[in-house]
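Allow me, if you will, to draw on your knowledge of protein folds for a short while. I have a record of one protein: its chain in single-letter code and its fold written as discrete structure tokens. I remain grateful for any guidance, and I place the record below:
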Amino acid sequence: MVRVLDPAAALLGEGPVWIAEENALYWVDIKGRQLNRYDMTDDAVTRWLMPAQLCWVIARRHASGFIAGLGKAIGVLHMSEPPVFEAKLDVEAELPGNRLNDAKADGAGNIWLGTMDDTERRPDGALYALGADFSLRREDSGYVVANGPAFSPDGVTLYHTDSAARTVYRFRRRADGGLAEREVFVCFQPEDGYPDGMTVDAQGGVWVAHWGGGRVTRFLPDGTRDRAIELPVSQVTSCAFGGKRLDRLFVTSAAAGLSAAARAAEPLAGALFELDPGVVGLLPGRFAG
């Protein structure tokens, strides 16, 4: 079953994150410079405009508000009315054409985040780890569109994507928190579209959104395709588990770049969807800083 939670046409819906104590899902519209909140209690949707491209938000362990990626800056997003962004550090100041893209927190409270060339042409993107003290460490490089960090249930494996290369990678994490050598986990074929955001369920299944492929696919930990769920839009961007039992899969999508004919054929492009995945997920990590 596919349920439409918010039919609004986000230009680039991304970064869904479940906040259990609010019974609510937050997600961003990067190109629309907007933060959105869906309340599962009453189906209400709240939106906040941002001063720049809001790339992601991650809840904090010991404080209110979010850690957020806004343009090229990382900082605290205080959820006042209106929200206030307190910048803590700039990322890749030497690469003015780059921006932040996707991010997740691991079980230790570190944030793993990617950067990308905003024209999606140059391999100037990288993968970073952000510590609780806001120290930033580059872990991998050479990405055109760094996307979708996600972690195995035991935290031993990090999954990460270069969407432009149609490839999902995996890394074994070392005892010191760093990454071992990058391995190929899954390669998409042209008919699959491009791998975008992803999440991992409690059994270790990796759910990947297909940009240009109109679906989410569950892969087993060995890379075998298990099953797919089709959506009524082509540009599927990311997914996250939520709900009181973590048995719902929330999926974001995008309307940006579609022709007038494609928009007419996809009236729900940019909508937020809810799926029944048949498995339960994991609570998202929170930043320890």
